[in-house]
Amino acid sequence: MQNKRQRSLLPELIRLEALIDTLPATVKATELARFQSGLHSYPSYLIELATFDATKPTLLLTGGVHGLERIGSAVLIAFLESLLQRLEWDHGLQHQLSQLNVLFLPMVNPVGMATHRRSNGNGVDLMRNAPVHCEDKAAFLVGGQQYSARLPWFRGNPEQPEAENQVLFELVRQKLFQSSFSMVLDCHSGFGQVDRIWFPYAKSRKPLPHLAELYRLRQLLFDSYPHQAYQFEPQSLHYLCHGDLWDYLYDESLQHDTLFLPLTLEMGSWNWVRKNPFQLLSSLGLFHPVKPHRVKRVLRTHLTLFHFLIAATASHQQWRRVMHPRMLRQEAMELWY
């Protein structure tokens, strides 16, 4: 266990381990790996709300891929805490969660979080490190670079992915690809003034094969919550990049008998900076709300989205059964491409 000073650098880890210490018997916590930084090592925990059952659909919630974007981990830990409290008394929630597997991997890159860096301990940007190459022109530097680990967005060696990515890849292969249907929501911050839900591709402006399903998911979200404020769109509308983890795993999923839909929640942090420009003096300022009242607001803002994804995953057969794929794909093409 890290000494007190080291642990103070990771309040998210302190809170997560406190939850793990009080988990009910039905909830499982697994230390998937430890990542070294100097004399200290940091764990990456997987939380499963019930025993994994491959016959059920699966939802994976991840955060902390970029160490500076700690609010993503904080949002997931707060949601996990809420679910654990409600599971003690809420029979409706107990029944709903019995219909699917819900997994939490809230700290993919704990070394980056502890050292206040976007990259991992090797200076590699995990979201540029997958063995995927952009099919069109990637954004300069931002789209992934191999000049130096001293510059941001360093790809490392994509043919030998970093240990954190190997842990994530193995988790998706062992759990999500074993289910007939699965979704991921990967929580990030640091882009734009609005909250966005992105889906692949990041490597290309071409539509992905399951465009109709993603467009239908967007319809469900917007129809069910007409006052929500998310932009639901392909990442390629904004920029292209090499090495995207979810591009890589989505393409791999096409080789399996499964439907795998990865989503990214990109929390629009520029509004936080606009309201408090002085937070730019902190390394976390561009990616974190900083002010306590804003942190609390962000922690509760996305609860509706999380509950929607649980419901959509559990009920995927119902909403997919009434789809008209050709019509949906055509509407999606007109909207996004």
Textual characterization of the structure:
- The radius of gyration is 19 Å and the shape is globular.
- The chain has helices at 4-8, 11-21, 70-87, 91-97, 110-115, 163-174, 211-224, 245-253, 270-275, 292-301, 303-314, 316-321, 325-336, and strands spanning 28-37, 40-48, 58-63, 101-105, 181-189, 196-199, 231-234, 259-267.
- Strand 6 (196-199), helix 7 (211-224) and strand 7 (231-234) form a beta-alpha-beta unit.
- With 337 residues, the chain is an alpha/beta fold.
- The mean pLDDT is 91.
- It has one domain (4-336): 3-Layer(aba) Sandwich (Aminopeptidase), CATH 3.40.630.
- The termini are far apart.
Can you tell me the CATH topology?
A: Aminopeptidase
Helix content: 25-40%
Low-confidence spans: pLDDT under 50, at least 5 residues? none
Q: Could you name the CATH homologous superfamily? A: Zn peptidases
Rg on CA atoms, Å: 19 Å
Distance between the termini: 50 Å
Main traits of this protein?
single chain, 337 residues, alpha/beta, Aminopeptidase, 8-stranded mixed β-sheet, 13 helices, 8 strands, 38% helix, globular
Write the layout of secondary structure elements.
Blueprint: H1 4-8, H2 11-21, E1 28-37, E2 40-48, E3 58-63, H3 70-87, H4 91-97, E4 101-105, H5 110-115, H6 163-174, E5 181-189, E6 196-199, H7 211-224, E7 231-234, H8 245-253, E8 259-267, H9 270-275, H10 292-301, H11 303-314, H12 316-321, H13 325-336
Parallel strand pairs: 3-4, 3-5, 5-8, 6-7
Antiparallel strand pairs: 1-2, 2-4, 6-8
